[in-house]
UniProtKB/TrEMBL annotation:
UniProt organism field: Rothia koreensis
GO MF, one example: flavin adenine dinucleotide binding
PROSITE patterns noted in UniProt: ACYL_COA_DH_1, ACYL_COA_DH_2
Keyword Oxidoreductase: yes
Domain Acyl-CoA oxidase/dehydrogenase middle: start-end pairs: 137-230
Bilayer-spanning residue ranges: none
Protein's GO biological process: fatty acid beta-oxidation
Acyl-CoA dehydrogenase/oxidase N-terminal domain: residues covered: 20-132
Protein name: Acyl-CoA dehydrogenase
Start and end residues of each Acyl-CoA dehydrogenase/oxidase C-terminal domain: 242-389
């Protein structure tokens, strides 16, 4: 008799690197996601509608508290880089759109306040952001400036006494339609340096328009922003962001997060494809018994296993507080490329069923496209690594 099938997508058992306490915390999170969050995903994606109470449901997971324990009102055990990464995998296996909305809040918006704010600003905003009663967004990209936004930011900030006046436009800003605060990056007209401003909900001159008709991450509300003479007090300017170099430090961490995210998406694609291959019968036997289908599955599993190895090592380096800018760029470019290949193989394995929402692979296939392009496209992350290994910049 042959051995029962090995169903894991973590073939080399990387999760055993977590401590027993971390493993049980991950199990708690996995179970909560399966019962409270997963059932909302498909309908929300199909309708392209963000569930208004999603953050209330995500708060008990404690992901923000684990990442920023010193700003949590309840005592929590800090999440190691590895645990945070494995939680990111679980969230993306549950639904990439929900994971992205949460990531914009905890990674990009909270990361901006934590890394760019002074202690008074961190104390002012982070405790409410930790318990998700205050939701954040991150406004960097512009309609005319995506990859090159570092050098050519068009949104301006002009000092006027104790206030700043912001003018310009932003594009793709996740959560901005409902966020309580949006971190807006703008170029200071006096010294040409990029600075960051916390724009609070309801501020006059700030307008967010939901981008319609997306084919990827449909549940995430991305917005076109217009800023017309938006007045922000100096106390809302993040005091430690004084140029794009400071923004790049925030992006370094979130690019690593996207590599973990891509790994989660690819793992889920492999899991649903493996399961389908054992149940879909053609020519009188499960398609998983055909050599060419096994080849697809093994290529998918090989990608997933390589991705896991890379993000785990990246996490270990980040734990030691090393500068991992180039390594995070390499992981983002590599893992999102492998993810895109993996979901495509999964979709192929499902035949016609691979293009309908009823089978999860279709959603993963579509969501991979946005993940591949945001937080720096594959090309831009490749050029960051290229500069690191040659000492020569191909883009600036
Ligand atoms: C779903 C989604 C969510 C997002 N969320 C946010 C958010 O919350 N906040 C935010 O600020 N931004 C957000 N973004 C923006 C995202 O970061 C940008 O889309 C991304 O940086 C690419 O910029 P772009 O779309 O303007 O493409 P472009 O910069 O116009 O690039 C177009 C193509 O040209 C290539 N290219 C450009 N320059 C070069 C070069 N020098 N060499 C080779 N190729 C090059 C690119 O790789 C790409 O393939 C989001 C985007 C998406 C799709």
């Amino acid at each position: 008799m042959s051995k029962p099938a090995n169903t894991t997508s973590d073939f080399l058992d990387y999760a055993s690197l977590l401590s027993p306490e971390e493993q049980s915390e991950l199990k708690r999170i996995r179970e909560y996601l399966a019962t409270e969050i997963k059932p909302l995903a498909e309908k929300a994606w199909d309708a392209s509608e963000f569930p208004k109470d999603l953050f209330k449901k995500l708060a008990p997971l404690g992901t923000a508290a684990g990442s920023y324990p010193e700003y949590s009102r309840v005592q929590v055990t800090p999440h190691s880089e590895l645990l945070a990464g494995f939680i990111r995998i679980e969230m993306n296996k549950t639904d990439p759109s929900f994971a992205v909305a949460a990531g914009v809040h905890t990674g990009l918006a909270m990361g901006s306040v934590a890394g760019g704010g002074d202690e008074e600003q961190r104390q002012r905003w982070l405790p409410d952001m930790v318990d998700m009663s205050l939701i954040g967004a991150f406004g960097l990209t512009e309609p005319e400036g995506g990859s090159d936004v570092s050098g050519g930011m068009r949104t301006t900030a002009t000092r006027d006494g104790d206030e700043w006046v912001l003018n310009g436009a932003k594009r793709w800003i996740g959560n901005a339609t409902f966020a309580d605060l949006v971190v807006v990056y703008a170029r200071d007209t006096a010294d040409d340096q990029v600075k960051a401003f916390v724009v609070e909900k309801g501020t006059e001159g700030f307008h967010a328009e939901k981008i319609q008709g997306k084919i990827s991450l449909r549940t995430v509300e991305n917005a076109d922003l217009t800023l017309t003479n938006v007045r922000v007090p100096e106390k809302n300017r993040l005091q430690n962001i004084n140029g794009f170099r400071d923004v790049a430090k925030i992006l370094r961490d979130t690019r690593g997060d996207v590599a973990w995210q891509a790994t989660g998406v690819a793992m889920r694609a492999y899991e649903v494809a493996r399961e389908y291959a054992t149940t879909r019968v053609q020519f009188g036997k499960p398609i998983g018994g055909f050599q060419m289908i096994q080849d697809l599955l093994v290529k998918m599993l090989s990608n997933v296993t390589a991705m896991l190895g890379m993000v785990i090592r990246l996490g270990q380096l980040a734990e030691n507080k090393e500068d991992t800018s180039a390594q995070a760029a390499l992981a983002k470019a590599f893992c999102t490329t492998r993810m895109r290949e993996t979901v495509a193989w999964g979709r192929e394995l499902f035949g016609g069923n691979g293009i309908v929402l009823e089978y999860e692979i279709a959603k993963l296939f579509a969501d991979a496209e946005a993940i591949y392009s945001f937080e720096g496209s594959r090309e831009m992350n490749t050029l960051i690594v290229g500069k690191n290994i040659t000492g020569l910049s191909a883009f600036a």
